[in-house]
Input
Amino acid sequence: MRLRLPNGPRLDSLAFRVVASSTIWAIISLVVVATIISTFYRQASERGFESVLSAHLFNLIGSVGVDEEGRLQGSPNLGDFRFNMPASGWYWSVEPLSDNVVGTLGSSSLTAAIPAPSSEDVPFDADFQRRYLTEGLDGEIVDVIESEFLLDDEDRIVRFRIMGNYSDLSEEIDEFSRQLYLYLAVFGLGMVAINAIAILIGLRPLTRVRGALADIRAGTAKQLDGKFPAEISPLASETNALIESNRRIVERARTQVGNLAHSLKTPLAVMMNEGRAMDGPKGRLIAEQATLMQQQIEHYLQRARAAAQRETVVYRTPARQTLERMLRVMEKLNPAIDLEMDMPDDEIVFAGEKEDFEELCGNILENAFKWARGAVRVTLSEGSGAKSGMFELAVEDDGPGIPEDKATLALKRGQRLDESKPGTGLGLAIVAELVNEYGGELALDTAQIGGLRVVVSLKRAQE
Output
């Protein structure tokens, strides 16, 4: 049979949630900012590109004319060396549209004709201009501004085309976007790191509060000490007030328990004496019942004291020292019993009151020595693994033991499985209730030496 307190649910880290939420918000913000900046840069670059092409177009129109025979003439100088580089992606051309215009003109870079879409696919606007993208001589994408223009009164119409390398513009925009995202990513990482450090530093007082509370539970401190920020100082003050209130409640409960015990002590003693003075079975019955009343009162007073102590400041009791002292007494009282002890070299500190630990060990040892035929084995050890914060007390005897089907019955108060030896049947019941009050575990097994093995696991006090 095992008795244990349920473990509470694990709570998420406040620092993790704050850092994670701020990081997500920073990432979203930086992505939005990068997208907006990249979009604005693209729009501005395309507008600038269009302005350059338009300026070149107007310059080209102003530089070309026709002679009296309708032949195109002119030497346009657009001021950009790329119009002189073959297959550079920057071209211009002047083509006749009416029959009274002869010849064509083109930039040095234009070594072959670049097809134009039909006016149905890309119509002209009201100013007889249109703009479209097409493939250049070297596979690049060129942006074309095309205009139909009337040169003179003879209705000589020509088509002017200015072509700029849109692929270079796209690569430039993409390169800007890559650098922008890179710089913003570096900036974002630094911002997230600084933000996380600031949050952790800001939450450090909460860590101090947690450590102070751990010291209180470990019994090394009685209240939250130290200076805290203005936001946490009220919490520390209220916690200290709550601890002080619990301490007063415990002290008041102890006082009332002591008063009750004192007030009942004299009437019970009178009843016991009167019962012993009376002859016959009625006197023995009165004395026995008065004795049982006294034992029951002691039992429930013990429970009240343990319950009042629970969930308050944790006390510290040296388990090995206390157990060794009790074993020396039991060994003197039972010289015929061979006692074997296995104790650790280092002290184990029980997170509870000394009186409760003595009551618990006393009942287990008394039961073992009472039923042992010739040997008792006591082992005190530190817990490991899942029980690393606990210690284990195991008491074995070579007596008759307890059948497995009656182990639960042995833990009930007042139950005695064998009437051949004196007792009240409260020993193991008191042990079980004390173990339960302290959130430990109790197990009844068969000992290796043949009798009963009682194993108790209790919480250790933190260092």
Remarks:
- The first strand starts at residue 65 and ends at 66.
- Helices lie at 14-63, 166-218, 233-277, 281-309, 319-333, 354-371, 407-410, 427-437.
- Residues 233-309 form one domain.
